[in-house]
Amino acid sequence: MSSSNDQPTHQFTTQIVHADRLAGTEYGAVHQPIHTSVQYGYEKVEDLIGVFQGTYKGGFNYARQGTPTTAALEAKVTQMERGQGSIVFSTGMAAVCATFLTLLKAGDHLLASKFVFGNTNSVFGTLADLGIEVTTVDVTDVAQVAAAVRPNTRMVFVETIANPGTQIPDLEAIGTLCKERGLLYVVDNTVASPYLFRPVTVGAGLVINSLTKSIGGLGDALGGAVTDTGLFDWGNYPNIFAPYRKGDARGWGLQQIRKKGLRDMGGMLSSHAAHQLALGAETLAIRMDRTSATALALAQWLEQHPAIARVHYPMLESHPQHAIARKHFKAGSWLLAFELRDAEQCLAFCNRLQLPIKATGLADTRTLIIPVAHTIFWEAGPAVRANMGIGDGMIRLSLGLEEFEDLQADFAQALA
Ligand SMILES: *Cc1c(COP(=O)(O)O)cnc(C)c1O
């Protein structure tokens, strides 16, 4: 766990491309090597004991809790989010689940956004069965969040730019509310990424990223991360188990997530995937600038097209949370959703497009397209879809690196 709450001396990408060598690499390797060893041995048994008892800093014992390669990626994510430490997981969902399951207990209340990733919404059902109450509200309105807080509320969970509808929570006001009520504010920053927005700036205690998406960005490896921003007071959090209530309280939260969520539940990232994700992270800023510019140009073009009923994109003036997006985000990201006037044309339109690949998934280098109601929100059912504002004609786009002119020409022929 490296600490990088200190003010950085360099800009975003300068910092990230030089991050690997900070902790020193063998033989002067310019990239962090892929460490495949599962076991880590010590000359003196006292050192091995020190690793177990947490007094031997920077030591490894068994790869289920980390390797030098995953630790380098953790340090990189920590730098990007300006946190005090991070833990990486095999997928974004492993990170989401570990956060809920290690920090909430039966009888607790989780207050969450109703605009969340479909699988996260599915986890809410699992939590309810385990005796954790879950309420979902429209987080674009802080009054709704405030009204839903109960005496047993422990955590407030939101996503920075919701998929597929691009709703944006009242990020700052919810941060203030959480601070006043002593609630843990957890922000899933997957779509925006720490390049466009850092949740630490609005008071988040924990930040989750699916590394599969913006940060990895090449569509070739799965991963997830949880970052502790250092803002939450773990000393007052009732659910920390006795073995982790030792030493500086600032470390208690991540310690519990690592021991329970990684060591016990086992969703560890492989060193190979960590290496791929770390390489992808180096081009995060370049990819986000490019895909955000393309997405905005396409959103503006679609919005004036007579066959289109609605376009959902944060940097359009018509977006309901446009002011929040302008205030907090460097750009609007690669995520765009729109609705055809004639919902019945939705599937035929997708088939007429030549460039976008008909596939689920987000933030690849290629543009991906999917009709939402028939696929990723099919299992959720009509009631959940209606509650989230997902109509039968909604189409989601994840913009890739193609030139805007080529995409525009393809959309023009498919809409003609
Ligand atoms: C994709 C996604 C996840 C899950 O990430 P995986 O790496 O696919 O498991 C979680 N949250 C959001 C917002 C996502 O888009």
From TrEMBL:
Q: Which InterPro entries match?
A: Cys/Met-Metab_PyrdxlP-dep_enz, OAc-hSer/O-AcSer_sulfhydrylase, PyrdxlP-dep_Trfase, PyrdxlP-dep_Trfase_major, PyrdxlP-dep_Trfase_small
Please verify whether the record's keywords include Cytoplasm: no
Assigned GO CC terms: cytoplasm
Instruction: Give the matching Pfam families.
Output: Cys_Met_Meta_PP
A Gene Ontology biological process in which this protein takes part is: cysteine biosynthetic process from serine
Say which domain of life the source belongs to.
Answer: Bacteria
Q: Which keywords are on file for this protein? A: Lyase, Pyridoxal phosphate, Transferase
**Enzyme class label:** transferase
Q: Which Gene3D superfamilies match?
A: Aspartate Aminotransferase, domain 1, Type I PLP-dependent aspartate aminotransferase-like (Major domain)
Q: Which cofactors are reported in the record for this sequence?
A: pyridoxal 5'-phosphate
What EC number(s) are associated with this protein in UniProt?
Answer: 2.5.1.49
- Recorded GO terms, molecular function? cysteine synthase activity; lyase activity; O-acetylhomoserine aminocarboxypropyltransferase activity; pyridoxal phosphate binding
**N6-(pyridoxal phosphate)lysine, modified sites:** 213
Tagged with keyword Cytoplasm: no
Family recorded in the similarity comment: Belongs to the trans-sulfuration enzymes family.
NCBIfam families registered for this protein in UniProt: PRK05939.1
Q: What's the protein here called?
A: O-acetylhomoserine (Thiol)-lyase
Protein species of origin: Acidovorax soli
